[in-house]
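Cyclohexanone monooxygenase structure dump, as promised
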Amino acid sequence: MTTSKKDNSTPSQIYDTFIVGAGISGIAAAYRLDQANLSHYKIIEKADRVGGTWRDNTYPGCGCDVPSALYSYSFAPNAKWQHLFARQPEILNYLEHVSRQFNIQDKIVFNTELLDANWNEQLALWELKTSTGDYQAKTVIFATGPITEAQIPKLEGLDTFNGEMFHSARWNHDYDLTDKRIAVIGTGASAIQFIPQIQPKAKALYVFQRTAPWVVPKPDLPLGEFSQSMIAKYPALQHNWRKTVARSLNAINFGLRHPIFLKPVNQLFKQVLKYQINDPQLLKDVTPNFTIGCKRLLFANNYYPALQAENTTLIPHGLVKVENNVVIAANGERHEVDVIIWGTGFDVSHPPIGKRVKDEKGEILADRWKNSSPEAYLGTSLAHVPNAFLILGPNVLVYDSFIGLAEAQLDYIVDGLTQMKQQAIRKFTIKADVLAQHNQLIQQHLQSTVFNSGGCKSYYLDQNGRNFAAWPWSLKTLKQRLSKFNLDDYDVIYQKDGKMQKDQTLKTAS
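structure tokens r here:
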């Protein structure tokens, strides 16, 4: 584990770029800036090691739903994956290895949290207040990720519970679950991974399910020493493996955009489900009532066996109330438990970074997003937030590796920062009409996708039913759009005379 660094930088040093967060996106951002000779940057990380969500989520069974070959940086192939689908410890080790391999680790100020980010219009600089000092920077990359804020519902009587209680992303490894009566709230991606791990220990396990998810078999296999040695010896194997996985995910994304092609897939997996579940009532309770892909598709081989264990009870209703140590479902069912484990996911519609950042008008982003979900241009540029980028922002998600998406956005970001340096740009801000047209088209095209038309309520939809997360077109289209930073989409001020000029005007003058 990396030791803490204290950095009391004064605003006298102005960085070209400030990176907030050292998870998968922050590490990639640092690498790409170095490769582009844009190395005058600073990275801060609130924790004491890199890794982001793979550092924070240590629950039993935690792993990735994207095959290992694709869940790795294009610039850092890994021949040491132990499974086709990597587990959390090996992903974290990989991220730490990459950060050391490319000398990124030493550039990170750990145990340093962003408290406040303000745009100084007079200086055309970001002023950043952190828990260990203040900074100034010409540009900022917010690499804070969309799945960081653990979500726990506010329920009547929750304060009367006197047993143990924790969220899956804040797992209490010191608490022994052996012979305990356990209530698990939620059946999302995390829950279907940790439920099979804790079920054998429990005296009684009560699983509260509001909506039955689609859980399909996971084509996972261990990769032994022979496989690893062959991948290391012949890099083309991993390259072709990566291409094969990418093609498979492209096929899934095609189906998500054209739900008519998912109808036979629905029927196929309903038949598969019948072979997995013996009890007719349980089969009815776990059969999804929406089109596959509308909510996040889940992969597991041990979830349904865990639900059918003698000590497990599936409650096909949400938790609505707690009375001392009794948990009460929406149908009135009551159970006394010793521990509550929240598998309720994250608040992705209100990115936590929004509480720390003010736009050029001085308005906190979280206040702007109170009554509606955030918008961005290509998931990257926010309205009235100049000289700044957000990685894995609104409406950029497709079924693919987050690492691949982050790298695609960094093509765009690094091109923008390079143009800024080459053309002596003082300030750039996404144009209001460009942003509005972009998001209007996104929302229009999302209507026909499975996310909006598949008959479910997912975390992709905000409280108003607006889809703030998904990208409605192909991954190829997204990467093409992100391949070049087009200055015509931005209001630009140059250092030359501080006046608004078009890029072409500057080129002509020079």
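The chain has 15 helices and 19 strands.
lmk if u need the other ones
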